[in-house]
Amino acid sequence: MSSTAGTGQVLTEVVRMLVDVVGEDFLLDLEVGPGTTFNEDLALESIEFVALAERLQGRYGDRVDFAAFIAGMDLDQIMRMTVGDLVAHIESRLQPAGV
């Protein structure tokens, strides 16, 4: 198994983490994809962001530092952040050095 993951795999893993964080019942009427926003579509609360960060840390280790990722954003960027933005960040952190 490769240490890098493709877009589909990372997206699937992030969606699985979101189901764990917000609950499957909440996501029944929502198809989560790259354009899904954390604020407007998922209505993630700060404690849920913390839970997501913990899951990302558990899955990807120090390579994906969610807190550092959002620390570089202003409030408007955080409010508009999509699942696709997070997936792109994860993929960029999983790339082998020099690629």
Give the topology.
Blueprint: H1 7-22, H2 46-60, H3 66-71, H4 75-80, H5 83-94
Helix pairs in contact: 1-2, 1-5
Large-scale geometry: globular
Annotation, overall tally of beta strands = 0
Give the SSE order as H and E letters: HHHHH
For the sheet with most strands, the description reads: none
* Helix residue percentage: 55-70%
Q: Radius of gyration, Cα only, in angstroms?
A: 13 Å
**Beta-sheet strand percentage?**
under 5%
Q: Provide the structure class.
A: mainly alpha
Distance between the termini: 19 Å
Low-confidence stretches: none
- pLDDT averaged over residues: 87
Number of distinct helices: 5
Keywords:
99 residues; 0% strand; 5 helices; single chain
What report would you give on this structure?
The protein is an all-alpha fold and 99 residues long. It contains five helices and no strands. The chain has helices spanning 7-22, 46-60, 66-71, 75-80, 83-94. Helix 1 (7-22) packs across helix 2 (46-60) and helix 1 packs across helix 5. The radius of gyration is 13 Å and the shape is globular.
Compact description:
It is built from 5 helices and no strands. It has helices spanning 7-22, 46-60, 66-71, 75-80, 83-94.
